[in-house]
Design goal:
The structure is a single chain. This protein is of the alpha/beta class and 332 residues long. It contains eleven helices and 13 strands. The protein has a five-stranded mixed sheet, with helices on both faces. The chain has a four-stranded parallel sheet with strand order 4-3-5-6, with helices on both faces. Helix 8 links the parallel strand 10 and strand 11. Helix 2 crosses helix 6, helix 6 packs antiparallel against helix 7 and helix 7 packs parallel to helix 11.
């Protein structure tokens, strides 16, 4: 357990805020001007990991995030000060494959407890189309150019391991259980509380899963269009089909052929809405929507919470996502 003194001058607080770090460590001989902490310190790579750490750790943890609110996590570049923070923390919680800069910094750090969420559940390869009933979708469009490979499309991009596991409450619960066990092992003095908090969080995620199952069971269409392929696990879980304009990276540009194909597909499948997200420009979504005469709306991948988010935490935003999907898919 690290027990450190933190110098909390105005300059330090400003620097910490700029770095997206909840606290900034420094050596100080003046105990009156410093705060001692005997908490279990956790550096999380981005919001979904920080949320798990806070929910499971409760009052026993001090959680800081490497990614600032409003910052696109895929764009993260670790600073020298953040590397120093990693050397002083008790645990690092990250999702390997989402943020290469964080992966590298954590791997090179001396932090004793490194928790990779990607090892706590199963990651799958997803392309631009992902769905729980992709085969049915292909049958409906047999004879069209629509079905080109086993997932329905070959968009000229390589599918990769999809890191967006937190958007599936069942997979997120699996990760939560693994994080809880890692906390129990690393900080055994508070193991009972970590176990209790983990169980409570898993139960809440189970309730969220039930809401999605029930809420998306009977809809006019099962197909939804997103700007980037963040919702593959969610689509598979609830029998939907995600058609992404771009691939797993929100910065990738769609081809003219892909946009034309989406317009054709939207008409055939009764798609009403093109979803965009809070941390990325809505320009591409609006272009596709205008060309195909469709609506636009937000489907939030919850990579960070900002004042633009439709809720203050993971659960609130997921419930807002459910409502948006119900409206777009036409709940019967």
């Amino acid at each position: 357990m690290n027990v450190r003194r933190r110098h909390i001058s105005g300059i330090a607080v400003t620097a910490a805020a700029a770095l997206g770090l909840g606290t900034l460590s420094a050596c100080s001989g003046d105990s009156a001007a410093a705060g001692n902490t005997d908490k279990f310190d956790v550096v999380a790579s981005f919001y979904p990991m920080a949320f798990l750490a806070e929910e499971i750790g409760g009052d026993h943890v001090s959680v800081t995030s490497l990614t600032e609110p409003g910052q696109e996590p895929h764009d993260l570049e670790i600073s020298a000060k953040q590397r120093a923070q990693l050397e002083e923390t008790d645990a690092a919680l990250f999702l390997k494959g989402l943020q290469p800069s964080a992966d590298e910094a954590i791997a090179q750090s001396g932090v004793k407890t490194k928790i990779d969420a990607a090892t706590l559940t199963t990651l799958e390869e997803h392309g631009s189309e992902v769905g729980g009933h992709a085969a049915e979708h292909e049958d409906e469009h047999a004879g069209e150019e629509h079905a080109e490979d086993e997932h329905g499309h070959d968009h000229g991009e390589e599918a990769g391991k999809d890191p967006h596991i937190w958007l599936d409450p069942v997979k997120y619960a699996e990760v939560a259980e693994g994080v809880g066990k890692a906390f129990e092992k690393a900080d055994p003095d508070h193991a009972a509380d970590y176990k209790k908090n983990t169980a409570a969080l898993v139960e809440r995620l189970g309730g969220l899963n039930t809401k999605f199952e029930t809420g998306l069971k009977d809809t006019k269409t099962k197909v939804f269009i997103t700007t980037h392929a963040a919702f593959g696990y969610l689509a598979e879980r609830y029998g939907l089909i995600e058609e992404a304009i771009s691939g797993l990276s929100p910065e990738s540009e769609p081809s003219a052929a892909r946009i034309k194909e989406l317009e054709k597909m939207a008409k055939a499948d009764g798609v009403s809405t093109v979803f965009y997200e809070t941390l990325v420009s809505d320009k591409t979504a609006k272009t596709v929507a205008n060309d195909a005469n469709l609506e636009t709306d937000v489907l939030d991948p919850i990579e960070g919470i900002t004042d633009k988010s439709r809720g203050d935490d993971y659960f609130q935003v997921m419930e807002a996502n459910l409502k948006a999907l119900q409206t777009a898919l036409g709940v019967k």
